[in-house]
Write a structure and sequence with these properties.
This protein is an alpha+beta fold. The chain folds into 2 domains: about 130 residues, Glutamine Phosphoribosylpyrophosphate, subunit 1, domain 1 (4-Layer Sandwich), CATH 3.60.20; about 45 residues, no CATH class. It has 4 helices and 11 strands; from the N terminus they run E-E-E-H-H-E-E-E-E-E-E-E-H-H-E. The protein has a 5-stranded antiparallel sheet with strand order 5-6-7-8-9, with no helix packed on it. A 4-stranded antiparallel sheet has the order 10-1-2-11, with helices on one face.
């Protein structure tokens, strides 16, 4: 899991998703140890991640070409995934102006996790990336709200800060927006 962050506004919505994909191969217990250290924030750089993988005997591939945020028919879609052995769990966020829905898919079973309305930020990612994004939101979003430009600035700041603090997020990201008010499917 890395980072997808969105702002669901009444008249304009934004979403950004990093492009990093990390593939681990090795002993299950050691792989889980490495993932726990990475996603908890204990590993803070790409070099440290490679070094720790070597120490644990884990093969590691990092690619920054995975699209995790896109727009389809006026709906912004963001998805993060995590693998545990052969099992994959995905969380998908769909945002239109005025409403959003989060669904989870695990072993071909899809379930709605939550549904909400504007105006709010929604964050998907691991514990560390969520904490970074929420800290940016709390620090820069007024209690009385803000403008769509303010929301966009916060999303960009969160993406950049997360990329600088954890190797689980790429320095590049996809940014999409919509002004469509679309009913979201269940």
């Amino acid at each position: 899991m890395s980072l997808v962050i969105a702002f669901c506004g009444r008249d304009r919505s934004f979403m950004a998703g990093d492009r990093r994909e990390i593939v681990f191969r090795g002993d299950d217990l050691r792989t889980r140890t490495l993932e726990d250290e990475l996603y908890s924030g204990r590993i803070r750089s790409r070099d440290a991640l490679h070094e720790r993988a070597r120490e644990l005997g884990i093969d590691l591939w990092i690619h920054d070409d995975r699209c995790k945020a896109w727009e389809e028919d006026g709906i912004l879609i963001g998805q993060v995934s995590e693998r545990d052995g052969l099992s994959t769990r995905s969380r998908r966020l769909c945002v239109s102006c005025g409403n959003y829905v989060i669904t989870e898919v695990q072993e071909s079973i899809k379930r709605e996790v939550t549904r909400g309305c504007a105006s709010r930020f929604i964050v998907l990612g691991n514990k560390t990336t969520q904490e970074i994004a929420h800290r940016c939101i709390r620090s820069h979003w007024s209690d009385t709200g803000g403008t769509p430009a303010d929301a966009l600035r916060i999303i960009i700041l969160a993406m950049e800060e997360a990329a600088s603090l954890t190797p689980s997020v790429s320095g590049t990201y996809t940014l999409v927006q919509t002004t469509a008010k679309t009913v979201l499917p269940p």
